[in-house]
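Lecture 7, part 2: worked example. A protein chain together with adenosine-5'-diphosphate.
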Amino acid sequence: MTTALYPGSFDPVTNGHLDIITRAATLFDKLIIGIYSLPLKSLLFSTKERVELMKKAIAHLPNTEVEPYSELTVDFARRVNAQVIIRGIRMSADFEREFEMALMNKKLAPDIEVICLMCSLQYEFLSSSLLKEVAQLGGCIDDLVPAHVAAALRKKLSPIAVVKRGDKATK
Ligand code: ADP
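Predicted complex, written out as structure tokens:
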């Protein structure tokens, strides 16, 4: 049985991530989505929220699980008995960083293979950070994330959106 780990910040999960998850779930017996709790970048959603949003998004995929983690990704992979780490690659944004990380992971854990799946064309431009920026400014995000994620983003970002709209009157 081959278990794969798809690690990331998922702040929040997007349809681009879900595309990778859906495809990886068909390739491996079990897919664990690891939600990294301590990324260097600043987060909008807490670890608990990111886990809940992911759990709801993948509830229809029976061979998937979601777990938060805070150790080195390769140590977490060993802890959950994953032989493979999955990453997604967008043409413009990811190759160099993913290559660097894959080589570092290979050095730390030569027994774990890193497999990168190319993103689907329609999600090439989609990142969690850009998504948050668009949502914050009131742009339509409905076809970029599941409905419950769009609702969570609106709820989190609504005070800022209101202030922005109110701004107009004072300037
Ligand atoms: P990180 O793990 O670097 O904090 P994310 O949580 O956003 O980044 O993404 C997790 C993984 O999903 C990374 O491998 C990233 O390259 C990939 N990814 C992000 N957005 C997309 C997308 N739109 N399509 C495919 N893969 C993506």
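Helices lie at 15-27, 47-57, 73-79, 95-108, 128-136, 147-170. The domain at 3-156 is CATH 3.40.50.620 (Rossmann fold). Keep this in mind for problem set question 3.
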